[in-house]
Every structure is written in structure tokens, then in C-alpha cells.
Amino acid sequence: MALKRVFLLRSVAPRVAALSTKPQAQEQPPASPEAIRGCGAAKAVRPPVPDVDFTNTQEAYRSRRSWELVRNLLVLRLCASPVLLAHHEQLFQVARKLLGQRMFERLMKMTFYGHFVAGEDQESIRPLIRHNKAFGVGFILDYGVEEDLSPEEAERKEMESCTSEAERDGSGANKREKQYQVHPAFGDRRDGVISARTYFYANEAKCDNYMENLLQCIEASGGASDGGFSAIKLTALGRPQFLLQFSDVLTRWRRFFHQMAAEQGQAGRAAVDTKLEVAVLQDSIAKMGIASRAEIEGWFTPETLGVSGTVDLLDWNSLIDSRTRLSRHLVVPNVQTGQLEPLLSRFTEEEEQQMKRMLQRMDVLAKKAKEAGVRLMIDAEQSYFQPAISRLTLEMQRRFNVDKPFIFNTFQCYLKDAYDNVTLDMELARREGWCFGAKLVRGAYMAQERDRAVEIGYEDPINPTYEATNAMYHRANRGTRGWPGAKLR
Ligand SMILES: Cc1cc2nc3c(=O)[nH]c(=O)nc-3n(C[C@H](O)[C@H](O)[C@H](O)COP(=O)(O)OP(=O)(O)OC[C@H]3O[C@@H](n4cnc5c(N)ncnc54)[C@H](O)[C@@H]3O)c2cc1C
Fold first, then answer.
1. The pTM is what?
2. Ranges for the Proline dehydrogenase domain (predicted)?
3. Distance 470 CA to ligand 1 centre (A)
């Protein structure tokens, strides 16, 4: 196994939104620096960064020297060659033999490494960050580490780490929907994906190791410049089984809400505009035999819903919150079998511990980021992990985005439900008074997602065309800018 520490730098395009959803009254400029509190206040002390117009290529590439542009073009062209990609290891071996190790390394640093990698430590990344900053280009520091793992090993690790103890011994865990079950043909998640890093779970010690590396990345980001970002992937921090199981639960719960909405004649509405009549909802649930009438009345009290008499998806989601014990006893209809099934699986003691440790690692990283003044971007990953990743990110935002946005979620606009996801999170931030932070992307896993949906047999989560993805991207972008109380940095 060859491990090498490198920091990858992603230039920040202006689609990173840090939005204040706090009441306007808290957003007045502070009287003095000590009084700085609230999302809007931070703007007053940060020197203005000139905006880069990315539609004007001459301006967008002003920070790059001519030889760098030639190098970048060459590297990207070479990377797009299927023949070269298929034989790159052999070609590297030949080049190493012909040039010798030192010359080979120099060549790599001048070409591929130089294009993709910012440096190996805090010191070496500084000049590039300073240079970019002078041209108004920010940065997101990503920890890149090479791990030699064969496709077979990757598949074996994935199958093992995505299956629960109860599923292994067949002792009656509820059956996950197809999308949230692991499949050997897609066990190697690196297939067909261009991404900074794919993590495979080995054991808890390895996750601690990844966490240490990410802590160093955050430190380097903080040490290199003010106002930087670090990117992390939650699949680095624990057993992916939990992400799959939790995603399954969240999706089934949400689908159940939409099923009820359709019964009330609200099919097709944007999630944030869908509001169910409580009395009708209670009737439907009682008829389905999911819970007794008295139990259902206890779910929807004035404390949980206010006096509106309606339930929206945010109220609905709050019922499943870890703070209530309701979900432990809850059954919902499985759309594939039509049977009522428990919403939550039972975990073994060890699995509970593993899940807690994953949350603890997230906590350690978020605290470190806050201490170092670094904003943390949580990358979006495969759609079968994403509902859980988004939900855990939201929990971190609630805790850490009190005065300003430290935790940024990522929304993939190639997903059919991207607009609903981004607007619901913004509305929740507005209601609860914390600062919303988001990165909008199109999405990096399209080919793999589509193949998986066809092979396993569930609805393709991706928009049907590139144009539809673009339309979703612009809609989400406009949606976040136009939200009440929103401020774009
Ligand atoms: C700073 C940064 C952070 C990123 N973080 C993430 C992340 O956390 N998670 C993530 O998934 N991606 C992430 N990405 C990747 C990003 O989403 C894009 O996939 C990637 O940048 C390629 O887009 P492009 O602009 O080069 O190509 P473009 O051609 O503009 O876009 C390609 C993308 O459009 C979509 N698309 C293309 N054709 C179709 C079609 N027929 N139907 C539907 N959709 C289509 C797909 O998403 C495809 O990947 C990140 C990228 C950057 C630069």
C-alpha cells in the first residue's frame, strides 16, 4: 500500500452561497469589532474580494501564466485519452526507468502533479494560495491520498462494510429498499468517477487515521490564508452501512409524506409548498393501521406544529428526529412489498458504538474547523448515501452555524430532488435561525448512478438531460438567492 500526503486545491467559483437566514434585526453592522455577532456582521470586517466573472475567460484565467495554461491543456488532453488512461501504470514505469527516479519526479511535478496538487504541507501551498488570492480566486483544500486497492479488495471491503450483522445472520432486520442495498457490481465506488478521493471502510482505527489527516488539512487551510475552505467526505469517517440504512429510513419517511400529499390532492408541488391538513392526515394514518388514533394525536401537538393545522415536510421530518423516540416504534409501508415494516433497524452494541464514533469524528472536525477559522465543506457523494450525509450535515449546521456559516452542505443539481432539498434546508435554517451555507454543483457520479439504477432496478435519480440538470442548477441558484433574509457572499 502506497500512501502519500498531498493537498489538492479546488478553486472556488462564485456558486458558493453563505446565506444568512437570521432575522434582519441581527444583521446590522456592529458598532465595534468586539460586538461582532451574527452572519451579516462578519461581512463588515472582511476586506472586499473582487468578484471574478467566470463567463469572461480572459478574466477567469488571469491568475494563470501562459505556460501554465499550456500545461493545463496538455494535462487535461492526456487525461481524456482512454488509451493513455488504460496503460498509465506501464507508461509511468517505462518513464521512470528511462529518466531515473529524480528526473521522473521533476517531470511529474511539472505536469500532472503540478496541475492537480497544491503542495505537500502548509508551507508549500502558501505561495499558490497567495497568488490566487491576489486575483480574487479563493480555495478549497482537499486531502488527497493515494491508496493502492485492487477492484476486488475494494468490492470485498464495500460488501462487508455495507451489510449489518442482522442482515448477515438473517435474524429479521427490516429489508432495505433496493437503492439502499449494497451490490457487488458497484462495490468499487471508484468506477467511472472523477473525484478527489474514494474512501473504503477497513476498521475504526483506519477511520481515526483519516480523521487525523483531515485535521491536518484543516490546520493547513487555516495556516495558509484567512477565509479558506476544507473539503471532507463523510464516507471517510465511519462504516458506510449507517449511511445506507439512515438514507433508506429518511427516504421512506419522505416518500410516505408525499404519498399522503397525493391523497390530499397535492402531488407535484414543490416540497416546501406542500402542506397537509392534520385532521385528514390523522384519519389516513389511522385507517392504514400504522398507529392508534390516540398515538397519532400525540404526534401532532401545538408544541410540535404550532396552530397552523397543517403539517409540512419539515414538521414531518422533525418527528423522526433523534430527539424523539417515536421513530423507534414506527412502521411505514414498503413501496416494493406493500407491507408495513419497522422504520428503524436494530443495531448490535458494536454497531451502535461504531455509529457514535462516526458522529464523534464529525464533531471533532467541525470543532477544529471553527477553532482554525476554516469553513468546512461536506462533499456530496453517491445518491444512496446522500440523504444521510445531508441530514448529518444539517445537524452540524444547526450546532456550528450559529453566528456565521462554518459548515457548508453540497447540493448536486443533477438529482431530480435537488431544488426541494436546498429550499427545505434553507427554510429550516430560517425557521430555526441558524446560518445556511451551501455549495451547488452539477454532480460527479452520473454514469455510475445511472448504471446502478438500471442494473438493480429502481428509478434513475438523475435528471434526464444535461439541459434539465442546468435548469435545476439555475433554479436552485435563483432559489437560494431569492430566499427571505438570504445574503450571498
Ligand atoms: C470545487 C468543486 C467541488 C465539487 N464538489 C462536488 C461534490 O461534492 N459532489 C459532486 O458530486 N460533485 C462535485 N463536484 C463536481 C461537479 O459537480 C461536476 O461534476 C464537475 O465539476 C464536472 O462539471 P464540468 O463543469 O466540468 O462539466 P459540465 O459538462 O458542465 O457538467 C457535467 C455534469 O453535468 C451533468 N450532466 C451532464 N450530462 C447530463 C445528462 N445527460 N443528464 C443529466 N445530467 C448531466 C453531470 O452532473 C455531469 O457530471 C465539484 C466540482 C468542483 C469544481
1. 0.83
2. 202-476
3. 10
